[in-house]
Structures are given as C-alpha cells and as structure tokens.
Amino acid sequence: MTEPPARTYAGDRIRAAFAEAGVTGWLHAVDIDSGAQIGVGADQPVVTASVHKLPLLVTLHQHAEAGHLALTEQAESPAGDRTAGPTGLSAMLDPARLSLRDAAYLMMAVSDNTAAELLLARVGLDAVNATTERLGLTRTHAVQSFREFLTTIREDAGHGGSQALADPQVLARLRALDPARTNRSTARDMTRLLGAIWRDEACGPEHGAAVRRLLGLQVWPHRLASGFPFDEVHVAGKTGSAPTLRNEVGVIEYPDQGRYAVAVFTRAASPAAALPAADAVIGTTARIAIDALRRGRSST
After folding, report:
1. pLDDT score at 1
2. In the chain, N or C: fewer CB atoms in 10 Å?
C-alpha cells in the first residue's frame, strides 16, 4: 500500500533532522487508537540499553497481577554490591531497604541501575523474555542484565577506561553497541509494547495504570519531552543510553484524547558524552512524526 504523501514528506524531514544532528536514527510512531503509523528504519535491530527496563517493569507487574509476588515486598540493597550508575541507589553510600514498587519507581524515574538489578533478580531474565514473546515482540530479546551490559563496556574499553571510549577503534569493538550481542529490539516492537500498555493489554487496568504512572514520572526533559513543550500535552517515556547511543520510547497524550506511541533510537557519529543536538533530535523527530499523524487524524 502506498504511504500517504504527508507521511512520506514527514519521513524525509525525519531523515534530514537525524543527518543534521550528526546521528543515524531509527523511528516508529503510531496512533494508538487508529493504527496509523510512520517509520524510518522501524524494523532495524537496535541496542535498547536502559529502554529494556520497560519490559522488566511490565514483567514485574504481570507477576504481581498473577500473585507471584507482592509489590510491597521488601528488597535489600547492600552498600557494597551496587551496579554502577549516576542516579538513585547506584549513587548512594549506605545500605538501603525498599519495596519492589519503590525500586520500580527509581528504575523508571531516574534509570537507577541498582534498582533495576534488584527487580531483575526477583523476576529473572527468562521471565522478561517470556513477556516480550507473549506480547508478540518477535525482535525483542534480553541476553544479559544491566550490570553485565556495563561490565562488557568496561572490559572492552580495556586499560584505558572511560577515556578510551573516545577512540573509534575501541568503540568498534564494544559488544554493548552490537544488537546481535546485547539486549535488543526495534522501534516498531517498542511502540507495539507501549500500545499494549496503554490499551491495558500488557496488564489489567490496575497494573496498566501503575506502569503508565511510572513512565509519566521520568525526570529527563531533554530528549522526547523537548519536542512537546506544552502544559496540556502529557509525555511519558523511558530513556536508554550507552557510548554514542541515545534512545527514548514513550507515549504523547493530547487534550483531544489523541495518544501516540513513539520510539526513537540514535547513534551519534561523535563519541562525545555531551551532544545536545543528538539529545534534542529525539524530540524533534518524534514531533515531526506525531504532527503528521495528527494531520491525518483531523482529515479523516
């Protein structure tokens, strides 16, 4: 079927925006209710990084819904056994005890790696893969924990440590940047997951609402949310990052009841840690795609 001209034009604009920002990008956006969609490399395997915390969150709530665990169950986080990271428990110095649902909040709001490991230890990697398989996400698969993901970066960087990540030859050997050797998905699979969450197909209404609430509490405004700077538009999402990689998946909700799932994955040409244009293009391209879908919605 031929794509409508407006969506073809939007795809061209999205590709141009990625190029101008100095990144290679993959995007999929879909109207959750009508199914209208726009894609740019939507079926290309991509590294999920912390975006894979979303399937973990859904798995946690499916287990709670089935009675396999209670979200109020307490988890211990010893001070000496934490996964590296700049936020949440990963950055704290003292032993901590918290509920599974509070760990889920830290995992989603500030992408806390230690909180994610606590939850993954409770439900298991196989359960996360069973969840994505059950939901028809045929190109989504987790092969390692978040701690193992970070460990491969450290090992592959070698004695040069984080400084070595500025070397293109070092980047080329990072297993963490190869979808075939780490946790992976596609932009289309991620919007399918988001649509299932928003339609209460991933979990029942009570747990679906809890998952949506946590996605809405993410604190980072510089990627997806930057494309929608309006008080009346609600943005809920989950980021993912690794050397040269900046990702975000989420749902944009408008006051006219329009709701759109979007997934944007990027890889920068530059290894620099601070690339504002690469962050901002996630919001820019998502806005281009959703504006095109909204024009199509208003004309039908």
Report:
1. 46
2. N
DSSP string across 16-46: HHHHHHTEEEEEEEEETTT--EEEESTTS-E
CA distances from 137 to 7, 131, 285, 299 (A): 24, 9, 23, 31
**Could you tell me the pTM of the whole model?**
0.95
Q: CA-to-CA distance for 176 and 242, rounded, in angstroms?
A: 8
**Residues 66-116 pLDDT 10s:** 999 999 999 999 998 899 999 999 999 999 999 999 999 999 999 999 999
Give the pLDDT confidence of 237-249 residue by residue, as tens digits. 999 999 999 999 9
Maximum CA extent, the chain: 59
Checking if the pLDDT of 296 tops 80, the result is no
DSSP string, 173-235: T-GGG-GGGS-EE-HHHHHHHHHHHHTT-SS-HHHHHHHHHHHTT----SSGGGG---TTSEE
Q: Quote the CA–CA distance of 53 and 256 in Å, as a whole number.
A: 30
Show contacts of 275-281: CB within 8 Å, 24+ apart.
275/22, 275/246, 276/222, 277/20, 277/21, 277/22, 278/21, 278/22, 278/23, 278/246, 279/222, 279/223, 279/226, 279/246, 280/21, 280/222, 280/223, 280/226, 281/17, 281/18, 281/20, 281/21, 281/23, 281/25
User: How far is it, in rounded angstroms, from Cα 32 to Cα 253?
Assistant: 10
Give the Cβ contact number of residue 233 at 10 Å.
Answer: 15
Sign of torsion over alpha carbons 54, 57, 62, 65: negative
